[in-house]
Design goal:
This protein is mainly alpha-helical and 451 residues long. The protein has 23 helices and six strands. The strands form two sheets. The chain has a three-stranded mixed beta sheet. A three-stranded mixed beta sheet has the order 4-5-6.
Length: 451
């Protein structure tokens, strides 16, 4: 409710209030709160809202704006204004902003930056956006090894917080900027001021190359519980650092991408509200489901006349298909997650598959017995009903076993072939289970002379 009130107030101020009224309103909110409001404004109001921001405030707000809205906002800004905001931003955020521009506007924006800013941002733009180099910032605090703790503290205090940001780690370098070690601010504070810095530094810090993939970087940071990690070249020369807040953004984006693909769609569809984009991104993934549905219809059509005499099978068919699809989706989701976390040992992949097969057998037995009893209780226990009940029990048991097996093998196979295994969960596994479930029921019913 408060957010809606803030949005209405901001819209009124932008349209009818003075510039000073808008700026006073800005002072009441934090940058993330402002970013949420500005993302919901229409184009003209949003353009006006950013025109009234100081460059430092605009920098703080744009840092937390989601990518699709960020591109729209920057597209409406003059190149000179983008350069002004980039100058107030950390180098990684500035590179992200300028990298989101089209080629012509990017070149124009870089021309408005001074030499040092332009050089640093151009260097960052050379790295892939999904690499450690693309995530790193060049602002950091470094001290020479040949000093005391007292001297190192004085150097840290002399740093401008607006220029280096939060200090998570102090980097110890040699004369050629080669990284020799790290020391935490807490260790500097608690150490004897007169001891050599070399006596309190960590001489074997974790470092990464600028080409490291962001997923591998995120896993490294998570595993070692790092607040910051140094990025170095092949000669161990310190290039920059990646902070935990950027790694958290990576984790969020990767989780969003996995969820989107598991739903049979695309990362962009999560943020894009347009119908055209939704159709373009989602329709291709639904084609296999449509084809699978046609195959199910074909199978059922081939035994339509027989099913008219065995309506009990048709009535309980959705139960068989639903349970096979559910256990397949469960298994594939677990498999995809374990692949993403690197927890699957491919030397023992056979054991992994067998475990899921036996799980399907066990759970299928439970629900097969439950369905057998349900049919007998609700439909009577004459000979014909017993045969139908046994058919359905065998069908659900077999279908759930096959569903669990497919749920683990399909993601593993796609991963082996170099495809993203997240796409295996839906609609591929669900559709495949529907087709095999119908086939299993028809085969068993035929074997028992029911159709």
């Amino acid at each position: 409710m408060a957010e809606e009130q803030h949005l209405s107030a901001l819209e009124r101020l932008i349209r009818y209030g003075s510039d000073d009224d808008v700026r006073r309103f800005y002072a009441l909110l934090r940058p993330p709160e402002l970013a949420d409001l500005l993302e919901r404004l229409n184009g003209e109001d949003r353009k006006r809202a950013f025109e009234l921001m100081t460059a430092p405030l605009a920098s703080d707000v744009l840092r937390v704006v989601e990518d699709p809205e960020l591109e729209e906002i920057l597209e409406d800004m003059p190149a000179e204004r983008v350069a002004e905001i980039a100058h107030e931003s950390m180098t990684d955020d500035a590179a992200d902003m300028i990298g989101a521009l089209d080629e012509e506007k990017r070149a124009e924006t870089l021309e408005h930056l001074d030499g040092e800013d332009r050089r640093e941002i151009e260097e960052l733009l050379e790295y892939g956006e999904d690499t450690a180099g693309g995530l790193m910032q060049t602002e950091l605090v470094h001290v020479r090894e040949d000093c005391t703790v007292r001297e190192a503290m004085e150097q840290v205090r002399a740093e401008n917080e607006d220029e280096v940001g939060d200090i998570h780690i102090v980097y110890v370098v040699g004369a050629d900027d080669r990284l020799l070690g790290t020391v935490s601010p807490a260790d500097l504070i608690t150490a004897d001021p007169d001891v050599p810095l070399s006596s309190v530094q960590d001489r074997d810090p974790i470092v990464v190359p600028p080409t490291m993939d962001q997923e591998d970087l995120a896993e490294l940071v998570r595993e070692h519980d790092l607040a910051a990690v140094a990025v170095v070249d092949e000669n161990r020369r310190l290039l920059g650092q990646v902070l935990i807040d950027d790694v958290v953004d990576v984790m969020e984006d990767e989780a969003t991408e996995d969820i989107a693909r598991m739903a049979g769609t695309d990362f962009e569809a999560v943020f894009d509200d347009s119908v055209r984009a939704a159709v373009r991104l989602r329709a291709p993934w639904l084609i296999p489901a449509f084809i699978g549905g046609l195959l199910v219809t074909f199978f059922l059509g081939s035994v339509e006349s027989s099913l008219k005499e065995a309506t009990i099978l048709a009535v309980f068919l959705p139960v068989v298909l639903g349970m096979a699809g559910n256990i397949g989706t469960q298994t594939s989701a677990i498999t995809v997650r374990n692949l993403a976390l690197g927890r699957l040992d491919f030397k023992r992949v056979g054991r992994t598959i067998l475990r899921q097969v036996f799980t399907g057998l066990a759970i299928g037995s439970m629900f097969g017995a439950a369905l057998l009893l349900f049919v007998l209780v609700t439909r009577g226990d004459d000979v014909a009903v017993k045969k139908y009940a046994m058919t359905l029990a065998l069908a659900i048991w077999t279908a759930m076993t096959v569903g669990a097996t497919m749920g683990v093998t399909v993601p593993l196979l796609l991963n082996k072939l170099g495809f993203d295994p997240a796409i295996a969960t839906s609609p591929f596994v669900q559709t495949a289970n529907d087709v095999t479930g119908v086939g299993i029921l028809i085969v068993i019913a035929n074997a028992l002379d029911l159709i």
